[in-house]
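Field reference: sequence -> structure
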Amino acid sequence: MAGVAKMRREAFIDLKQDNSRITNLEAIAVVAIAGLSLGLGEAFVFPLNTFLTIAQVVTSIALALLVTASWSGLVYLIGTRIFKGSTDFPGMARPIFFSVTPGFLFVLSSIAEVRQFISPIIAGWIIIINVFALKHSMGFSNQKSLVTVTVGALIMIFALGTLGLFSS
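Structure field:
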């Protein structure tokens, strides 16, 4: 996790090549803990009764897993179909899942004095790590991986905006 957070090339390549079940479970655990951190940060800022706090934390974990899995699938399709990247899905998904490692720090967003500064920094850090994860797992250049992340982000924003329109 530290190697991914520091954007070390070897860490991404090791994750791409490691097909063990333990590594897959660790990748899922990283995202779940990041979701837990986000949920706890929100729970500290907006205190609710115990049941609603637990529901909020569980929802944050579930959404973190769902969004990360969706994001992995989307950038895999964009990278392999449009930009002709070469990798298998698990080899690309593991580095993407581990790229959420800085999300552990989202619990710091519960501190009012730093909330406005820390959350965008953590989100930006995760996005930058995603660019490096795609670069090393698909064999892309910096530009191609940045364009892949940008196109994927635009599609996700459009899709989530469309879902938001249907829910109101």
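Note: The chain has seven helices and no strands.
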